[in-house]
Automatic annotation (TrEMBL), chain A:
Keyword RNA-binding found: no
Protein name: Sugar ABC transporter permease
InterPro entries: ABC_transporter_permease, MetI-like, MetI-like_sf
Pfam family, one: BPD_transp_1
Organism in which the protein naturally occurs: Pelagovum pacificum
Automatic annotation (TrEMBL), chain B:
Taxonomic superkingdom: Bacteria
Segments traversing the membrane: 28-50, 95-114, 126-148, 160-182, 203-228, 263-284
UniProt GO BP: transmembrane transport
Entry keyword Electron transport: no
Function statement: Part of the ABC transporter complex MalEFGK involved in maltose/maltodextrin import. Probably responsible for the translocation of the substrate across the membrane.
CDD domains: TM_PBP2
Annotated protein name in UniProt: Maltose/maltodextrin transport system permease protein MalG
ABC transmembrane type-1 domain mapped to chain residues: 91-284
Source organism: Pelagovum pacificum
Family: Belongs to the binding-protein-dependent transport system permease family. MalFG subfamily.
Length: 315, 298
């Protein structure tokens, strides 16, 4: 954003020109600009917009992989109401999202405060905490499922060795075993990201305001609640949005760790759509489920962005 | 643990000589806590790396202690080398997809960033919003039609199709990044070069590219990590074993598709997937974090 005196001159040269050659030049520049952005636009149209429209179109059909697609109107959507497995998966996904988001914040916020001051030691801690963020969900899940293995993993044998339990614990056999192991894994893998985002918000809190409050006798807890938190609202909303949107789309970790089990108790929404579309090959029904998931997510994101956009509270 | 700014550590009215020892204890405790936390976060990564270097017999035992007790060995990597179409093939698939996604993302977002930053043309803002708003739409929900679309244009089950999709998924981030990068460069530089008689493309490559290089590096890192680690689209779209990328291969090893599950080989696979990401991040940390904060500070 550097608008300087010079640009006035430049604008005089390249600005709205009333002569015919000038207008032609402008049109040429417009065309050039359009050409520059066209590859990006083309990719988005072909690989995003068209599939999005065809998802809506497919959702109105019975669409097997082989054979003819048949138009059936809103039948897929009607069928969804009776699809208990989908609603169970949806419920589980929401439950998981709430728990994991709270857990991530509970870990990341204290850590952000802890490593906030710029110094040598802190930058080492930041890097260490952040490293799991850059390994993929797939790698993290495959690492974790090995640690969870009842005989040759780490958790169960270590618990036995430390005398926490007598018997080996098969974490994969129970809903809670899978659920809490995944929660711990996701917190380990993503807390660093939330921590860094929160740190940028903390840096935006002016030091002199905090100082003034301190002189006025506000306790550290009061300063945090009354000054730091309100000023960090946008950052917190952003971190929340990222965490919620990401968790609502969880798939990799449950596919790789528990295959949705035990007894389908850890099927997520995306997982169910995947099963319907690419295991049972009900492409039309899978698309209808996708559209519903998409609408739910857009609503959630919109609400959260509203929180982001809001001017500061007048409380 | 609410507040840890330095000047809060001791009450301001405390006598000087009392403050010093307390400071030191605080400091030691801080570092103890920091080192413990760092160790907790690093431990699983180290555990996988060390487990992958154990001889076969040891790799079948619980990983306590985490390091090999009977000498380091490459047994697990040898096992991994023979699964599927051979580790080399799948690693190359991953490398090709990731590097091509990086290259394409850089080229497309470089031009788009320049176009959106420097030109005005009809529907400019609409097109920009169209690209950026795709970040709101989860690609998981368009996977089914994407699968059919790729089949139609003959790109299903091809690495090239995967590259195009990964590039498209990265576009909102990369175009946003590059437009901001170009916005930060004064227009006079271009005009000066143009007055000297350089053509549009010469100016772009010779003058502008070096100036927006930090932005391009950021775009490249994010594109690489996303393509290297992506699982679901690769799982759905790559139906031929020869085209499996690393995550799909290791998942197949873990589910025992190639005989009994060899946990040593799985951890060797995890290590192969992990190490490039870690090296990339550690060497280019600054650019990575810039990409993160660009979104947060907006």
């Amino acid at each position: 954003m550097s608008i300087t005196e010079h640009t006035a001159e430049a604008a005089a040269i390249a600005g709205p020109d009333r002569t015919r050659s000038g207008r032609r030049k402008q049109r040429r520049r417009a065309l050039a600009g359009f050409l520059f952005v066209s590859p990006a636009v083309l990719l988005v149209v072909v690989f995003f917009l068209i599939p999005l429209c065809s998802a809506a179109w497919m959702s109105l059909h019975r669409w097997p992989l082989m054979g003819e697609a048949r138009f059936i109107g809103f039948d897929n959507y009607v069928r969804m109401w009776g699809d208990t497995r989908f609603w169970d998966a949806m419920q589980f996904t929401i439950y998981y999202t709430i728990v994991v988001t709270i857990a991530i914040f509970a870990v990341a916020f204290p850590l952000a405060l802890f490593v906030q001051q710029p110094n040598r030691a802190n930058s080492f801690y930041r890097t260490a905490i952040f490293l799991p963020v850059v390994v993929g969900f797939g790698s993290a899940a495959l690492l974790w499922v090995w640690l969870m293995n009842v005989d040759t993993g780490l958790f169960s044998p270590a618990a036995v060795a430390l005398g926490i339990t007598e018997e080996p614990v098969n974490l994969l056999a129970s809903f809670n075993g899978v659920f809490w192991s995944v929660i711990i894994m996701v917190v380990w893998k993503t807390a660093g990201l939330t921590m860094v985002i929160l740190m940028t918000g903390l840096q935006g809190v002016p030091g002199d305001i905090l100082e003034a409050a301190r002189i006025d006798g506000a306790s550290p807890a009061q300063r945090f609640r009354r000054i730091t938190l309100p000023l960090m609202r946008r950052t917190i909303a952003l971190a929340l949005t990222l965490s919620v949107a990401g968790s609502m789309l969880a798939f990799d970790q449950f596919y790789l760790i528990s295959s949705g089990g035990p007894r389908n108790s850890t099927l997520t929404a995306v997982y169910w759509i995947f099963t319907q579309s690419f295991v049972s090959f009900r492409l039309g029904y899978g698309s209808a489920l996708s559209i519903v998931l998409l609408i739910i997510l857009v609503i959630i994101s919109t609400i959260q962005l509203r929180l982001l956009r809001d001017p500061r509270d007048t409380k | 643990m609410t507040d840890i700014t330095d000047h809060d550590l001791a009450p301001a009215d405390a006598p000087r000589e009392r403050r010093k020892p307390r400071r030191r204890i605080e400091k030691v405790l801080r570092h103890l806590f920091g080192i413990t936390i760092s160790a907790i976060f690093l431990a699983p990564l180290a555990w996988a790396l060390l487990a992958s270097l154990k001889p076969t017999t040891e790799a079948r035992q619980p990983p306590i202690p985490p390091w090999p007790t009977t000498g380091f060995s490459t047994d697990s990597y040898e096992v991994l080398g023979t699964v599927g179409s051979g580790l080399w093939t799948h690693a190359m698939n991953s490398v090709i997809v990731s590097v091509a996604t990086v290259a394409l993302s850089i080229v497309v977002s470089f031009f788009a960033g320049y176009g959106f930053s420097r030109f005005s043309f009809p529907f400019k803002n609409l097109l920009f919003v169209l690209i950026i708003s795709t970040i709101m739409i989860p690609f998981q929900s368009i996977l089914t039609p994407l699968f059919l679309l790729l089949s139609k244009i003959g790109l299903q089950n091809s690495l090239f199709g995967l590259i195009l999709i990964y590039t498209t998924l990265q576009l909102p981030f990369s175009v946003f990044m590059m437009r901001n990068a170009f916005d930060g460069i004064p227009k006079e530089l271009e005009e000066a070069a143009r007055v000297d008689g350089a053509g549009v493309f010469t100016v772009l490559i010779r003058v502008m590219a070096p100036l927006v290089l930090p932005g391009l590096v950021t775009v490249a890192i994010f594109a690489f990590l996303a393509a290297w680690n992506e699982f679901l689209a690769a799982l759905v779209l790559m139906t031929d074993q020869d085209n499996y990328t690393l995550p799909i291969l290791i998942a197949a090893v873990r589910s025992g598709n190639f005989g009994a599950v060899d946990w040593g080989a799985v951890q060797a696979g995890v290590t192969v997937m992990m190490v490039p990401c870690l090296i990339l991040f550690i060497t280019l940390q600054r650019y990575y974090l810039r990409g993160l904060t660009a979104g947060a500070v907006k």
